[in-house]
From TrEMBL:
One of its GO terms (molecular function) is phosphatidic acid transfer activity. This is PRELI domain containing 3A. The lineage of its organism: Eukaryota, Metazoa, Chordata, Craniata, Vertebrata. Pfam families: PRELI. Residues 1-172 form the PRELI/MSF1 domain. InterPro entries: PRELI/MSF1_dom, Slowmo/Ups. One of its GO terms (biological process) is phospholipid transport. GO terms for cellular component: mitochondrial intermembrane space. It comes from Gallus gallus. The gene is PRELID3A.
């Protein structure tokens, strides 16, 4: 099992970042997500928006990984649950793969909150727990997947979020943005 975590500070207020996060797929800057279906969306009695979505993803796995996994299947599905609390100004999103679960599980949690010192910025904390099952070289594959998640996190959060709201990111990180990563083996 590998645990990957990251923190990113967006140079935009929480409301703006949340609107972008809710619309970040489909996204030409991350073509791996090929479809999004909203299965359920509702407001609770506290005014929180609950969403349950199904994401269709296409990951171009290297041939060696397909051979190790014993599959040629690269279309996978991810179940995503999110809660947006406009009063507390917090969005929590949890996702997990629902295909190839006999081989691998990836459980991800993202939390968006206003920056504690600057309300014009937003903090995103991410954690992913990656477990490859019943395969020799599982530690290698877990590391490979964690590195892919980390690489995508470096490339996509500011561009995909900002790009969808047409903010002036110009393909570069938000001014004053910061990102911290860690990777541990469980």
């Amino acid at each position: 099992m590998k645990i990957w975590s990251s923190e990113h500070v967006f140079g935009h207020p929480w409301d703006t970042v949340i609107k972008a996060a809710m619309r970040k797929y489909p996204n030409p800057m991350n073509p791996c997500v090929v479809g999004v279906d909203v299965l359920d969306r509702s407001l609770d009695n506290r005014g929180r928006l609950h969403s349950h979505r199904l994401l269709s993803t296409e990951w171009g796995l290297p041939s060696i990984v397909k051979a190790i996994l014993g599959t040629s299947r690269t279309l996978t599905y991810i179940e995503e649950h999110s809660v947006v609390d406009p009063v507390e100004k917090k969005m929590e999103l949890c996702s997990t793969n629902i295909t190839l679960t006999n081989l691998v599980s990836v459980d991800e949690r993202l939390v968006y909150t206003p920056h504690p010192e600057n309300p014009e910025k937003t903090v995103l904390t991410q954690e992913a727990i990656i477990t490859v099952k019943g395969i020799s070289l599982s530690s290698y594959l877990e590391s490979l997947m964690a590195n892919t998640i980390s690489s995508n996190a470096r490339k996509f959060p500011h561009r995909s979020l900002c790009g969808h709201l047409f903010l002036s990111c110009n393909g570069s990180p938000d001014p004053g943005s910061q990102r911290h990563f860690s990777l541990t083996q469980g």
